[in-house]
Amino acid sequence: MEIQDPRIRSLLRQANKVADAGKKAAAEQLYRQLLAEAPDVAEAWYGLGRMLNEPAEQANAYTKSVSLKPDYAPAVRALAELRGEPVPAWAIEPEEPEEEPEPEPEPEVETAVPPDDQAYELACYRHSNRSTSLRCYNCGKPICSSCAIKTPVGYSCPDCIREKEDVFFNIKPLDYLVAPAIGLVLSLVIGYLVVRFMTGLGWLTIIGAIFGGGLAGRFVGQLTKGAIGRRRGRYLPHVMVVMLVLGTAVWLLPILIFNGFASLFAFIGPGIFLFVAGGALFSYMK
Ligand SMILES: [Zn+2]
Ligand SMILES: [Zn+2]
User: Fold this and answer.
1) For a tag site, which of 74, 141, 150, 221 has the least CB within 10 Å?
2) C-alpha 173 – ligand 1 centre gap (Å)
3) Residue 34's domain spans which residues?
4) Are residues 156 and 181 both part of a single domain?
5) Which of 2-16, 199-213, 231-245 shows the lowest per-residue confidence on average (mean pLDDT)?
6) Where are the alpha helices (DSSP H) in the chain?
7) 82 Cα–ligand 2 center, Å
8) How many angstroms is it from 109 CA to the middle of ligand 2?
9) What is the pLDDT of residues 95-121, one digit of tens each?
């Protein structure tokens, strides 16, 4: 099976070259980038397998390669060797000549795609002083390794990640009113109970604060999420935690005012409670 797309062919040659130069991490990135665009290139799966360190991941990559191209000797050989199985006779001798005739028929392509050596002179679109060979799999912009975000399908630029998240966050403006309102009412009731029963010190208070906190956080999260149709918002978890803290702080304030800092020990129970409940609520609202 020939690779039709000249860009993919050029990417594969570039990846192989980087791999042969022993730059494993860079080569792995290039193979992954290529596979994100063209997941059916057996040679790239084989190349990726060679760059991986985990035998299970290697086996996965080789298996993919063999399933795409059952007569691709290097992958068949590598897979058999990895599994400690005998290599089939037809796959034993290294079958490189297949690669030779390729470099010639690319004259018009090289104008569109930077030649291999220039590929490293791409500059990160966010850091013009950093050269890179990575591109976002989604929009193709060059990204440096500190801007690249690894995703299951390849490296992505921060812009594309944010765009995807914006689809994921489907909250409506009214939700930002409804959710905190419900959260505040619930938190005021819960906060009252917490201040009423958890300001004494003792093991029971601490255990109660931990378990009660987990339950309360989930409870507030469940009710609120149900009320806003389970929609998600980027800042919703933060807003809800603020409501939770407010709901308890309102009841703690009089204690602080009337008893002063001598009453600080009374804050330990509510403090633990808020810490646990806040964490539970935050992760539930995400
Ligand atoms: Zn992008
Ligand atoms: Zn960058």
Assistant:
1) 150
2) 27
3) 6-163
4) no
5) 2-16
6) 6-20, 24-37, 42-51, 55-68, 73-83, 109-112, 158-168, 175-197, 203-227, 236-259, 268-285
7) 37
8) 27
9) 555 555 555 554 444 444 444 545 456
